[in-house]
């Protein structure tokens, strides 16, 4: 069956070749080896951890599970992919997908547990390669200037990449709909997870990050990592932060739902958090400073806390006193691509550090927005005892309606997250277009 995305992928690969030739020429390299990586073995065991190939390898091939493989880039010559696919009766060797890159690149299958020999006057190798291997190759290992330039080349996405991100969103939303139905049917966290995986057509080892399936108070644990096997006694709420990987590209979507035992105020808060998310998406545009947009999220959150009578006084005071940070300690969003938290979100184009403000250390994107960036927008509102306890003991705590907080604690929290591609004159919400 012909690959419908092959023309877009061809254009993407042509642009990659030009970019790599420009960067390598400027830095004086005539050849570059990119290693996909290898699975790590658990200490004292013969079992391996889940594997994901190196991002720059995926940028060319989209292959997240291809281990022990190499990509050879030489400006002016056809790029070669050495696919590690040895004869093996223990495991099925990887097969090539029916995708455009397999025709565009020269693909050589075989045994490549050791890297292919390369004749070059100046060779670089990047990826999880030890110094001994680099010395044997006569290569410079992970040169910082080269990595900075290649990371920057992944910041703005091609039309092909956005098409892949869109499909990843479509498949992830199939899982979110199934998760909601399992929740309303009274299922456990584990059963909700299994419903998500089945509907989104994924193995648990293939998801781009560990799915967060949090019932009730578990929704207040930002990276909740367990799945209760027993059905809940009370169904106050469900928070699902879960994605999908398509040709290497990651969806990262979060939805929160009230349950039949939810306090009416919590259901209203979810609706209003959707509104806040929409306001923030509408504000996306080239030239917008993401740090300022993150601060705008806190202003809107302060307004919601006052409007819902969780906080007395003004929204401005709620922000300035740190109240909003106690209710939302994470950043507004991050770059998205072949990595969920994609590279170069906290550096300038030249690779200079752009640290987040001291009061917002968890913010993962501190750059000015550009056409081609794809970002997550994920405002949150949580009832986290670890953060609310110190707030209650502080002078600002007198402005908080603690009886209402106590009623909402069993609901955990709310996060609403969409994936948005930014163009020169518009934005494209990849999540909402499939919801």
Uncertain parts: none
- Element order: H for helix, E for strand: HEHEEHEEHEHHHEEEHHHHEEHHEEE
Largest sheet: 6 strands, mixed
Which class of secondary structure composition applies to the elements? alpha+beta
Average per-residue pLDDT, rounded, comes to 97
Distance between the termini: 28 Å
Write the layout of secondary structure elements.
Blueprint: H1 6-27, E1 31-35, H2 55-61, E2 70-73, E3 80-84, H3 101-104, E4 106-110, E5 123-126, H4 131-137, E6 139-141, H5 144-152, H6 159-184, H7 189-200, E7 212-215, E8 237-246, E9 249-258, H8 264-282, H9 290-307, H10 315-320, H11 323-327, E10 374-377, E11 380-382, H12 385-393, H13 402-408, E12 413-415, E13 418-422, E14 427-429
Parallel strand pairs: 1-5, 3-4, 5-6
Antiparallel strand pairs: 1-2, 2-3, 7-8, 8-9, 10-13, 11-12, 13-14
Question: Outline of this structure?
Answer:
With 435 residues, the chain is of the alpha+beta class. Helices cover 35% and strands 16% of the residues. It has a six-stranded mixed β-sheet. The protein has a three-stranded antiparallel β-sheet with strand order 7-8-9. Strands 10-13-14 form a three-stranded antiparallel β-sheet.
